[in-house]
Specification:
The chain is mostly helical. The protein contains four helices and no strands. The model has no long low-confidence stretch (mean pLDDT 80).
């Protein structure tokens, strides 16, 4: 498996644990950025590391595919994705004083000189 996919999946497992720690009524929808890595790993038969299996609540010898299934099930019935400041729990925008909008960043066009 590619190292980037492994690192990304590790990050997702940590985020998933934070997300699940929020009571369900206060929990945001599952973040859209989980979709791509979960789709990439949905057929991966390689066993998950033990620590990751435990964090996801999977049995021994569970595969990356089983881990990916956890993330894909999180999207079941979901009709929207959270904003970055709305994860892992819902934020009441009216009360949020520290919410910052994401502004476009200037692109680095230095490689494309006229």
């Amino acid at each position: 498996m590619h190292l980037a996919a492994t690192l990304q999946f590790e990050r997702m497992i940590g985020e998933y644990a934070r997300w699940r720690a929020v009571p369900q009524k206060e929990r945001s929808p599952a973040p859209a950025w989980w979709w791509g890595p979960a789709m990439e790993l949905r057929n991966m038969a390689q066993p998950l590391p033990g620590e990751w299996r435990v964090q996801l609540g999977l049995p021994e010898r569970a595969s990356y595919a089983a881990g990916a299934e956890i993330f894909l099930k999180a999207f079941a019935g979901q009709t929207s994705a959270p904003w970055p400041y709305d994860f892992p729990g819902k934020t009441d925008i009216a009360d949020a004083t520290d919410v910052r909008d994401l502004h476009p960043q200037p692109s680095d066009d230095s490689a494309f000189q006229p």
